[in-house]
Amino acid sequence: MAQGAGKYEPKAVPLSGAIIAVLIALAAGFVFGRVIAGPGGKKGGPRSAGPIPVVKVDADKFQKAVRDGNPPRKGPDGAPVKVVLFSDFKCGFCKRIAPAFERLAQQFGDKVQLVYRAFPLDMHPGADVAAEAALAAGAQGKFWEYHDLLFDKMDRQERADLENYARQLGLDLDRFRKALDERAYRSEVELAQSIGRSLGVTGTPTLVINGQMVVGPNPSQLPDMVQRALEGKPVVDQSPSAAGGPPAPQGPPPPPPPLPSASAAKDVKIEPWNPSEGPADAPVTIVSFCEYLCPFCERVQPTLRLIREKFGDKVRIVYRNLIIHGERAELPALAALAAARQGKFKALHDLMFQHRGELSQGRSKIEELAQQAGLDMARFRADLDSPDVRAQLEADKAEGARVGASGTPSTFLNGRYMSGARPPSHFGKWIDELLGNQTTTIPASMDPQQQGGGGGCGG
For the chain: N or C, fewer Cβ within 10 A? Predict the structure, then answer.
């Protein structure tokens, strides 16, 4: 595996918060971005790429998510099923799931209560103000109508736009403007974020259904999840996987997107220090922009391993960093780059995804994993703090923004952009076409159960 052994000479790299904004056109991925990143993984080995992961949350914390701060809601307080959605008005996956979330009220009536929690992501400039505007509209009885307008006009959320939507809904404009000027609902947004973080929410959309947290499900899955909760069952049936039996029928898998034309391919730069697997002259080069806090990036790792297994030296995989979840996501990325300088990138990379949910513990956890990966710790600590490694991370972020990476994971196959953690067969189809293969190398039967058609963090 090439690890970029040469010393990196830092160049003037354009730093921009705009980088994060561009990538968040992120189609998320959600975040799911989205998300999304989401709840922490379990200790031990890597999580199976099969059924959607569900994490039980603390009962008292879940009740706070339902009631504290008077969040927007639909349905009676006595409903047997309560669904809390953590969402961001600038997240593309949140936009996709919003109609299905609202339809639950029609489908289940008084049996369900829907609770909306604003969770604006750091990399979405202005998402916090949009959330405050929605709550200001809610104070005048128009939260859901304003919510729908924000998602419908996701690319137009400047102050003038926010006021225009209030005008369209017939709100008292003076009262609305005053609320925005005084940041009257800022504390409510911050409360929702605090509650989400206490549950383990790190990305959007994240759902908590009767205390069971699910990150970025497909919209079509929501009714079945609520029905299962009504029956007192886990919201996702993972028993076939746990028992080692055959997967339950899931219906036809989603078709892969068509391979973009050569004219649509991006010239994605590869630096000598970018960690990679496979020969440099492989006919297909995959550049994977990922983040260690993103659950969808964790989900795509088995796919990348399967690609290497099935295509061998015909494929080269290059790893680059994209930051979605703010500063707390940068330390693991710096750690991976520092490990690459000792030829230990993949060892630490895999360990950090196996323990993704524990990375929020900070540097102490990352150093613990670095020791497990066999790194020279004195050298690792020096590299982790070095300006050279920081410059490499900034270069990764800048390149992702330049080529239009819109969330994590973002993958480029010979420059063709594929967003989200798509099933292995989707990647396989593109690679087969790029190689001119007449047979299918990765059939849909190899796709993990319930993976769906994608998902990512951002928006």
Answer: N
